[in-house]
Fold this sequence. Notes:
Strand order of the largest sheet: 1-2
Order of helices and strands: HHHHHHEHHHEHH
Bound molecules: protoporphyrin IX containing FE
Largest sheet: 2 strands, antiparallel
Strand content: under 5%
Shape: globular
Number of helices: 11
Low-confidence stretches: 1-50
Helix content: 40-55%
Amino acid sequence: MNPLITSTRPIHQATRRSSAIVRRSISSTPSSSHPSMSHQELAEGSCPHSDKMHEFRAPQDGDSRSPCPALNTLANHAYLPRDGKNIGVWDLVRALKEGYHLSTMLACLLSFGGVFLLGQIRCMSLVDLARHGLIEHNASLGHDDDVNGAEYAPIKVDKKLLHHVCAEGGKFLPGRLTLHDAARIRVKRESACGPLDGPHAEIARGEIAIAIGILGGKDAAKNGVDIGVFHNWMQHERLPADWKPDHTQGLYQTYKITKYVRDHMKELKAEQPPKETVES
Ligand code: HEM
């Protein structure tokens, strides 16, 4: 049996894994009044034994985070270990399927592709993803470029840059960031920061296309995503309230939306280069 298909995994196994994540997340900052709970959990009124296991909790000191809003969000909601450490490739696959309803194929492709590019087949921490030039690239939508040849790129979201990027949305459908907008935004970012090499340009297009595909729901290819939802997810690395994916994001569908962004970027570049730039 395929161990990835969580719905067919024995319940006790899933529970053991979930409990392990909760145990790990609460062991670092014990509270004196409730030894098994962190200050943050007490402050936010959450209890690890309740059914709120996947509620949002911001990272604590010492937790590891990446420049990827999707994976940070999964850690903030305990689909990945909340501390962002010791993550194996199957943890990634499982988290992408559980948190965002990715198909098994797409989850495997992204996870195995990611750890392969990183060269960390056994285990990784989220911060490892910030290693510049592996997956991480310049011309990001919410992060400054790697400066002065630093080995690790910035992880903190640049609010000003993200604000500018989101302000570029809504040009085709009011209040929505569509695939059309995404293409324009990527063209502008790459013209402001300098062109990306082929693989990184493809990665950058894929990131925004999948994000729109997941957060925008089943009609995202046509209607895009609500700009506020996208902005909150990028900035706070938090799932929308009452998050419940309405579709499975599959490989073919993702290929199509990424291709759409690529083709539209080509058209835009063939027209005259844009005058304004989206700069931080
Ligand atoms: C549901 C799946 C995923 C989605 C929707 C997603 C989305 C995104 C988005 C939107 C960004 C751009 C952030 C920015 O421009 O500031 C990003 C960045 C990044 N993602 Fe993901 N991601 C996903 C899965 C993964 C996986 C599986 C990995 C690797 C194991 C990964 C690694 C990265 C890295 C290293 C960056 C930084 C790239 C940069 O320099 O901007 N992501 N991701």
